[in-house]
Write a structure and sequence with these properties.
- The chain is of the alpha+beta class.
- It has one domain.
- The chain is built from five helices and seven strands.
- The strands form two sheets. The protein has a four-stranded antiparallel β-sheet with strand order 2-1-3-4.
- It is globular, with a radius of gyration of 20 Å.
């Protein structure tokens, strides 16, 4: 009987030593390959300049990849997709080339800062530049125009209205 008690004491230790799992599996961003197509528009992702994005969905092995952060936001912000998103990755454009973003510069898209409406060309329509810091985003906006926005300030209305820096939409987190 004493052996059973001793064994029961060791069971919690087994779980304490292993990787923690709160029910959400942590993933890393995936490389974007030459033949990957945008989940929204079907265009070849690597053929166009500007930041790209990818999204991890709850209860799915499919990893939607996007030719632009604008397309990524148009997907994420659809009511039927909002609750399915578990992680978002975007390129840190302060650390990679605008013309050919490198996959080793992916960052957490929820923590990123964005510049919308700059004169830098993306795939279609106004680009949404992504940056790991507000300062990097502001420096980009100072050079190329546009408004600095946090992740949760980007809405379908913002993307649809073609917002510009002149409309007074430049924000900075405090």
């Amino acid at each position: 009987m004493n052996r059973i008690y001793v064994l029961l004491l060791f069971i919690p230790m087994l779980f304490a030593c292993g990787p923690q799992n709160d029910g959400l599996t942590m993933h890393n961003s995936q490389d974007i390959h030459d033949h990957d197509r945008c989940h929204m528009c079907g265009m070849m992702i690597t053929k166009y300049p500007g930041p790209k994005g990818e999204v991890l969905l709850k209860n799915s092995d499919v990893i939607p990849k996007f030719c632009s952060t604008r397309d990524m936001f148009n997907f994420i912000l659809q009511p039927e997709n909002q609750r399915q998103v578990s992680q978002v990755y975007v390129h840190d454009m302060a650390k990679t080339s605008w013309e050919i973003p490198k996959d080793d510069s992916f960052i957490d898209g929820v923590k990123a800062w964005y510049v919308y409406g700059s004169n830098r060309k993306g795939v279609m329509g106004p680009s949404v530049g992504s940056f790991s810091s507000a300062d990097a985003a502001q420096n980009f906006a100072n050079e190329f125009g546009g408004a600095v926005l946090a992740y949760d300030e980007i809405t379908l209305e913002v993307l649809g209205e073609g917002m510009s820096h002149e409309k007074g939409m430049s924000h900075k987190k405090t």
